[in-house]
Amino acid sequence: MTARMPSAEEREILRLEEDHPVLRLSRVTFDSDDRPFQVDIMVMPAHRQRLHYEIQIG
Asked: What is the rounded distance in angstroms from the CA atom of residue 57 to the CA atom of residue 38?
């Protein structure tokens, strides 16, 4: 996860003020043979987020 200032396009789409940062979350999911099968990239307004993860493996 990284935090940064949004691009002009992201500001427009997310309806953000110019001084509001965004969070960029990148996630790769692997199968049981350690091969990637899904990649997610999400950009979200930082001030509107509270992230909570629960991951069950196996």
From this structure: 16
Residue labelled with tokens 């790769």: 28
Contact in structure between 23 and 5 (CB atoms under 8 Å): no
pLDDT, tens only, 11-58: 999 999 989 999 999 999 998 899 999 999 999 999 988 888 777 776
SS3 8: helix
pTM for this one? 0.74
* Tokens representing residue 14 in the block: 């997310």
Residue 30: which H helix or E strand, with range?
strand 22-30
